[in-house]
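Re-run with default settings, no changes from the original entry. Doing this only to confirm the output is reproducible before filing.
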Amino acid sequence: GVGCRVARTRSELDWGEGLIYQEVVAGRPASVSVISDGKEARALAANEQLIGESWTGAAGFRYCGNITPLEPHPESDIAGMAEGIVSRLGLVGSNGVDFLLTEEGAVVVEVNCRFQGSLDSVQCATGVNLFQAHLNSFRGVLPERPAIICSAGRAILYASRPLKIKERLLFPWTADVPRPGSRAERGDPFISVLARGSNREEVVSRLRERGDLVRKALH
């Protein structure tokens, strides 16, 4: 979501930047994590995307994490849609499809041919080792659609001011931990926090609490 903005008139587009533009669509951001072998595809989980959440320090269209599974489940079968898209593209390994869930149905935003930011929440919520599933797919072995065993989430924290990390942040529920001596400018992502729980509300509450603990430790 870096650098994304809404252009309401043609004059607001600077054609010298080599822009990619899309129609603005109002909806709930979601994604589906998929493993594929070039012919078939298997959806592992549908995820809520966290976009521009102020409690993470993000704004606008900045991606700031995921909650797995997507709650409540949408009426449209985005898992099936994602499987169809990935298999038709002939992709192999771990892939993701991003959606916006609108009143008229699901709208595809993009396909990510790589490990996705939802990796931590998907592994925790399903118990599936995504790296092993990725390797297995190159041998034509795909997992079954897994059962959801819990709700899980990852939130990316953004710096509200310039930061210098003086010492290692030793929390058991963090990821992407910066090295001591590293710096983050205002608006830069600097660490991720992880949480699990019995439902979405519990996971978001724990992510917010842990985000506050990290910021207090920095102060």
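The chain has one domain: 25-218. The longest strand covers residues 41-51.
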